[in-house]
């Protein structure tokens, strides 16, 4: 596999396969996990919603019976008469009869209702019992069950009474078959206790068929369904299993996992996996208000069907991705290989020293990828080589021209050497005269230098004195300014604190307003206490407790008024103290502002004037000193110039004598340069031959 095109296709295909496998595998795992979680959440949500619908029916029954139980408790005003007076019991019963009937008529699915009393205190058939065959019929008042005919331990006949009483709390009884009307019913019973004594019970039976209808109407997926079990995991409703069958005893199945999960409260709402008649199933359950459990279940294959579809979709998408990647790799490699092939041909042509412009290179350099960058680099190299060749060609011509110019210049140099000899003699005479003049200048400069040194010493002493005066003036001004600033800061702080204290003193007025509000509230409280006392008096014995509370409220209002008076006295003392403090602080700040600050201001003005005069004196001394330094530098420059003139004059005389000797040497070197010029002509010819080997046009 030598072709770049084949390599790119293979590389893209391999990367696509690997990427698809990795991404597909991870996506598959994640998709299955998310899909399973979603299915579990969907099942749990439907289980919760359907169970809540059943709970709504049960809660309505609970609300009716609980409310009726509270009315029964409130209506029983004399427990002693209830235990001993049968006429009181009859009157009490009649007062509850219409209320109980109204509650039963307004409770959906209610078939019976009953209020029974403790047989230890009342007749064995005392109480209320009414029944009907269906919700469309009216309730018929019947003779209550005779407690004397059954032992309290006979749960089958009187368990509906004694079990809730023993439990001491409201109890849902398990569904049972009412043989009189051939209907399964479910009972909710609330025991009544007054001062810890069992008075009786209030109960209501509803048609269990309504619960069964709600459960049977629940469907999920294709064949998923719901069923009900009681607190002992016995089936109370199922499409295929008989009523009362324990989950663990269902024939032809191993439901131990389901039985264990239903017995574990922590598993409620969680996914449960089990096998039923050879079919793998997934389910979840919700506990109902009456202690039963609503179980929603469906075959595992239906629950995981969506996950299987997702798996097929991912695999099919992966195959399409690989095929598409191979196709893209083919076209991509073709697009890469073609420009590279053209670039190879262009580079090979440049290697043969053929630097002619190529139209293909102009097209390739417009590409935005690495091939375009390579084309632009090759074009840049081509242009630079063409430029180098052209510069070599120009350089050869210049070398040839220079050689001819050197030959001509050699003749002119010889003539100029002859002129140099005459000029040298004239320079020697001028140097002797300049040397004499330099000696005279040196003598005058020495005299001026002594006088300038004396002036410089005097100016330096004056400048030092002016500096010390200026430093003392500045120190005085700085000290005065700092003292003034500290005094101003102290004044500003005292002024702010004074204003703050005065402002805070106004808060006392706000306290006065608050105390006034408290007094108004106290007055209103007194009025409310009076009204409450009046109403309590009207209520008689029932309002005695309320009258005591009203008296306490009136007493509290009186205490509030006394407290407010004490607060007013304290506020007056605080207000007087604050006023005295404000007057004192005002006097202090006025003294600082009008006396201390004005004195510091005048003192600071004098210090600043003194500092200004010292600065002017110091400036004058510095100007004089600067002028003296300038004079000394000028004298030094003159002296150095004179020395240089003298030295140069001597050196010039020596140099002139050497000029004649060097002129002779120049003539000899001109002959050597003529030989070098001939060699340059030969090299220029060789350079031109090299340039001609390049093809530029």
Key features of this structure:
72% helix; 697 residues; 10% strand; 7-stranded antiparallel beta sheet; alpha+beta; single chain; 5-stranded antiparallel beta sheet; 12 strands; flat
Task: Describe the structure in your own words.
This protein is of the alpha+beta class and 697 residues long. Helix content is 72%, strand content 10%. The protein contains twelve helices and twelve strands. The chain has helices at residues 4-75, 79-84, 86-105, 155-167, 208-216, 256-262, 300-303, 305-351, 359-364, 370-505, 507-539, 544-692, and strands at 110-117, 127-131, 140-141, 171-172, 176-178, 183-194, 197-207, 225-229, 235-237, 272-276, 279-287, 293-299. The strands form two sheets. Strands 1, 2, 3, 4, 5, 6 and 7 form a seven-stranded antiparallel β-sheet that branches. A hairpin with a 2-residue loop joins β6 and β7. The relative contact order is 0.07. The model has no long low-confidence stretch (mean pLDDT 75).
Query: What characteristic shape results from the CA principal axes?
Result: flat
Number of distinct beta strands: 12
| Helical stretch tally | 12
| String of helices and strands | HHHEEEHEEEEHEEHEEEHHHHHH
Largest sheet: 7 strands, antiparallel
Short description:
The protein has twelve helices and twelve strands.
List the helices and strands and how they pair.
Elements: H1 4-75, H2 79-84, H3 86-105, E1 110-117, E2 127-131, E3 140-141, H4 155-167, E4 171-172, E5 176-178, E6 183-194, E7 197-207, H5 208-216, E8 225-229, E9 235-237, H6 256-262, E10 272-276, E11 279-287, E12 293-299, H7 300-303, H8 305-351, H9 359-364, H10 370-505, H11 507-539, H12 544-692
Antiparallel strand pairs: 1-2, 1-7, 2-3, 4-6, 5-6, 6-7, 8-9, 8-12, 10-11, 11-12
